[in-house]
Amino acid sequence: MTEGMNDKLYTPEQIRLAEEIAMTQYGIPQELLMEHAAMAVASEICVADEVYHATAAVLAGPGNNGADGLAVARLLVRRGVFVTVFEADPDCRNSAYQKQRAMLTAYKDEGILFGRLTPDIDWDAFDFIIDGLFGIGCNRELTGTIRSTVLSLNAYTESFPEEMSPDMIPEGVEEESIREYERLDRSTVIAIDVPSGIDSRTGAVLGAAVRADCTVTFSAAKTGLSLFPGRDYAGFRVVADVGIPQAAMPEGSYEVLSGPMPMLRRNPAGHKGTFGKILLIAGSETTPGAAVLAAKACYRSGAGMVKVVSDASVLTELLASLPEAIVTTRAQWLAAPAMESAGYDVMVIGPGMGKDETARELLHKALSLPEKTFVLDADALNILSAELEEEKFSADGGYLFRIKKLQEMLPPQTVLTPHLLELARLLGVDGALIAKDRLAVAEDWIACGDAVLIMKDAATLVAGDGTVRFNETGNDGMGTAGSGDVLAGICGALAWDARSGRRTLAQSAAAAVTLHGTAGDLAAQKYGARSMTAGDMIEALAGVFGELQVVH
Questions:
Q1: Residue 291: phi, psi to the nearest 5?
Q2: What share of the chain is helix, strand, coil (3-state, %, to 5)?
Q3: Which helix (H) or strand (E) holds 73?
Q4: Confidence band, pLDDT 50/70/90 cuts, at residue 396
Q5: Does the pLDDT of residue 73 top 80, yes or no?
Q6: Dihedrals φ, ψ of 351, to 5°?
Q7: Start-end of CATH 3.40.50.10260 domains in the chain
Q8: If you classify domain 346-545 with CATH, what class do you get?
Q9: Which CATH architecture best describes the domain 2-245?
Q10: Which of 318-327, 339-348, 398-407 is predicted least confidently?
Q11: Sign of CA dihedral 263, 269, 271, 276
């Protein structure tokens, strides 16, 4: 959850460049930027409750983030808070730190204490704990006293329930409107800019990281706070304007998808043929449900007609639960693919279809059809991976060659929907390499061709149109069998929009991802994340569409 966040994300390198431009080209002093940052943090701490005579611990690292922490301490003391600053290195050579320390020492008689950073801090003695150890510059694992202190703090916070019990919520206040970090029966942890130990580009935990209840990040949201596990460690996120001119922000930002994208207006005089004719090659004797889920999701997402190509046994089961479907067997379709596919300009291929020779033939005959838009999922991707291996297109010299070769194999209007392991097989690399920096992989994909890549994960990325979009809809309940089949069906229905020219294929893919995630959120509200199924997401789609903004 993020407050004050626009639809843009930036890497730490981009933010540092913006700060440099603000100081050198616009003449804005570093001290002023730091004061604005400290004011934003102090205001966030003081926004909910009367803090006079509250207690706060500031963990100050030996750099600019620590200097921010000292400035926050000074502002809190002025508001009547009793502050103890725990310093990692009071004699550090950082000039900004020493300037802030000199100003803060003037308040020694007004409720400020200094101490050395140690894992033995009595965390429960403080109402607020402010993490000012490291900011966006943290790019190596925490070690020594700082690491042990972070682990000690996390052990303290994790020993408490995540939320207050309902009887502790103030009377007359809606439960869902209360910020999570204001409902805790323990000290509240506020991170300055980025939780210490989180890589602000990738979201990775660098050995250990502060688990914050709230993170006040400066100027713009960071990519690492939109990716897991960084998003989880950040808690409630607030983006604060610290005075960097908008013109100083660099180009090349990324888009964050924090809610469902608007749907395009349908033609009120349209009919089933104009609302999208989708051909779905899916399902097999062992996985018939994949075809059912994908076809239902396709219809629920607005498709006018859905023809399903599968085994006869699958089609029998499909028609029992989805009589609206049009069906044809694999043999019938293979005998006349062009005729059977006439008018079906979007083809969804792969959910549960298997990897045998017939499945391979289905895939390649489909891909050979001209002027079609394709959504490739699951077994379609696994077949392509195996063929790349057979051709010995290895990734020994890096995976860029493999990406280029894969994109050369695909028609221009293609969406791929792999999860991490499927993507690793496609690229011929270990999944750990992708997980280490998913943003870098997405950017490499864009550089190698025009196909759209949906990198399915807890934080799904959509790579296409020369940019990367970060999805923040959805929940862990969507990690259930069939969820990917539902997304494939939604993608097929929305890919039709791209053929009209009103949206690009990448935009349609992004809209499908947010629709899928929002339906998952509605299903979790109704059934609980632990209990929800893929079918529950399909049923929730109607509710999502009912609330969506419609644009021309």
A1: -65, -40
A2: 45, 15, 40
A3: helix 64-78
A4: low
A5: yes
A6: -60, 110
A7: 2-245
A8: alpha beta
A9: 3-Layer(aba) Sandwich (3.40)
A10: 398-407
A11: negative
Give the residue among 351, 369, 358 at the shortest CA–CA distance from 308. Answer: 351
User: Token pair of 377, please?
Assistant: 């999922």
Chain region(s) in the chain for CATH 3.40.1190.20: 346-545
Among 245, 223, 238, smallest CA distance to 471 is for 223
Q: What is the token pair recorded at 76?
A: 């809190």
Report yes or no on whether pTM surpasses 0.85. yes
Write down how long the chain is: 552
**Residue 367 Cα distances to 42, 195, 291, 364, 412, angstroms:** 58, 46, 19, 5, 11
Give the pair of three-digit tokens for residue 437. Answer: 């920096």
What are the DSSP E strand ranges found in 319-447? 326-329, 346-349, 373-376, 414-416
Amino acid at 157: T
- Give all strands of the β-sheet with 82-87 in edge-to-edge order: 2-3, 236-240, 214-218, 188-192, 128-132, 55-60, 82-87, 112-116
User: ∠302-499-261 over CA atoms, to 5°?
Assistant: 55
CA atoms within a 13 Å half-sphere pointing along the CA-CB vector of 551: 8
Give the pairing type, strands 346-349 and 373-376.
Answer: parallel
Cβ atoms of 166 and 228 closer than 8 Å: no
CA–CA distance, 429 with 222 (Å, rounded to integer): 27
Residue 49's pLDDT band, with cuts at 50, 70 and 90, is low
| DSSP letter for each residue of 12-60 | HHHHHHHHHHHHHTS---HHHHHHHHHHHHHHHHHSSS--TT-EEEEEE
Burial (0-12, 13-18, 19+ Cβ within 10 Å), 331: exposed
Find tokens 């609302």 and name the residue.
275
Residue identified by tokens 């799904």 is 460
Distance of alpha carbon 41 from the chain centroid: 24
